[in-house]
Amino acid sequence: MRQARAAAFSALVALAAIGVSTSAHEGSEALVGGTMWAANRGTNDIAEFDADTGALIGKIAMASGSEPGDLAYATPGLGTSTHLATELLKQQTGIELFQLVHRAAASFPRVALYSENSLLPPDLKLLPSAAAAVSRIERLGPKTVVESAGGVGIPWKGGAKVDGELWPAQDDETLWLPAGAHAVEPAPAIAGPRLVHLTGDLKAARAVDAKTLEFTYQAAARAIAMVSRKPVKVQIDGVDVVPNLTGPVSLLLPRGQHVVTLTTD
Which range marks the domain in which residue 112 is found? Predict the structure, then answer.
């Protein structure tokens, strides 16, 4: 695998040297002994590389009018170091990555991404926005109307009302909304505790008083809620329970759908 990564790096340098784009790829396999062929469709050049070093051997003219934007390649066979090296070049980046994540988020309740090296640092901070399945966001006077198939966070500073009520589910930079359509507007900051983070699906939230917060959530597994103050009393579905704290201000909650009422210090 180390040889494959080295060959991938060499091939990438060679591809960049002749101006072959690697932003979108489409591969095909062929028995080509000792060489790796790569062509960016639309450049009218087919480049031949040494399979071990990635060094450019030569170029062959490609027919004009071909499909642009894709990388075609040929290797000695499936599972060879050349094949693995070329596959390492086939990483989703930029707009292509965001489109893929956005489509996945719109189709499934949960989207998990696994990557060792293929996600580039400039893309990481934009992934949460790409994963937001928002179908509508619109400013109507002082209000911002947001409609989403799942829970979503929007950039927000200061206090807020959601659907006309003071809203306690936010951290210092993000306001958390349940699925559905909601109208958000600026408001004075609440005096009571805030729900800062929740690993389950937020269904509803309200500020009860200066020390009490209530929210409804749903989770397939146990959930963790983080609040802005330490909970001293917890009720789940109206029943007093001993707070199961996982940290100074974080609380472990049972699976399922529940209404949680927290009283803080």
Answer: 94-124
Cα separation values, 207 from 12, 142, 166, 192, Å: 55, 22, 7, 7
Tell me the two tokens of residue 26: 């489409």
pLDDT digits (tens, 9 = 90+) for 63-112: 455 444 444 555 555 656 555 555 555 555 566 778 778 888 877 777 77
What's the confidence (pLDDT) of residue 54?
59
Q: Could you tell me the CA-to-CA distances from 144 to 73, 102, 113, 156, 222 in Å, in that order?
A: 48, 21, 30, 11, 32
Q: Using CA atoms, how far apart are residues 13 and 205, in angstroms rounded to an integer?
A: 53
Residue 120 sits in the same domain as residue 58: no
- What would the pLDDT profile of 13-30 be if each residue is shown by its tens digit? 343 333 333 332 333 333
Q: What is the mean pLDDT of residues 32-54?
A: 49
